[in-house]
Amino acid sequence: MSTKQEVELVIEKSDQVLEHTIKQADPEFYRALSNVLHDYIVITNPRKQIAFRKDLRGLIRLMAETVNQAKPVRTFSTGELARIFGVSVQAINKWIDEGRFLGYKREGNHRHNRIPETVSFVMRTGEVLPLEEVVAMYEHQLQEQQVDDAVDHRDAVLDEISRLMKKHGGTYEMTLGAKTERTAQEERDASIWLALLDELRDMNEAK
After folding, report:
1. In angstroms, rounded to a whole number, what is the distance separating the alpha carbons of residues 193 and 179?
2. Which SUPFAM superfamilies does this one have (predicted)?
3. How far apart are CA 113 and CA 117, in angstroms?
């Protein structure tokens, strides 16, 4: 059987582990885990105190490293989910009430809870998808759209520069940039042209 010192050591170390991990993960899970470890080690470990302490330190270190390396769980408001699914906030609340977010239950009567990415969503077809996967698809589409928008904007800038080159018969440096005196219209064109060239330079550097 374990000595009194061993029992006290387990209690002390398990409390430290619990205090450390309870801030980063589900409190109920770690509270239950701490109790199980306490019961198992204290009651069943017949070895001497030195070996016991060595095993316990290793176990605590492993638990702490696992917690520190764990990926933080993202959570989403109903407004954020509405954007992701392309529906209204009312629709998201209705789906929550219908239980279509498996593993999620409202806390209390208010509607401002955050839904973790670890739940699953039931599609109208009955197919079940992890919410994390739905979010990943949305973010991928968003990135593709941003790339397309950037390409379209670059094309628009190039078209406008080309228009100014045709209008004035050459590059900015060869035309308006080389003039010491310019008309009011040429001043406006020069200002727009320079801004477009700066924007194009920034886009090229950002690649």
Report:
1. 14
2. Putative DNA-binding domain (SSF46955)
3. 13
What are the backbone dihedrals phi and psi of residue 180, each rounded to the nearest 5 degrees, phi first? -90, -25
Compute the distance between CA of residue 145 and CA of residue 141 in angstroms, rounded to an integer: 6
* Cα separation, 53 vs 3, whole angstroms: 12
How far is the C-alpha of 165 from the C-alpha of 172, rounded, in Å? 7
Global pTM exceeds 0.70:
no
Q: Which of 191, 193, 196 is nearest to 155 (CA)?
A: 196
Phi and psi (nearest 5°) for 42? -65, -40
User: Residue 70 has which token pair?
Assistant: 């764990």
Phi, psi of 116 (to 5 degrees): -75, 155
**What amino acid occupies position 32?**
A
User: For 47, phi and psi rounded to 5 degrees?
Assistant: -80, 175
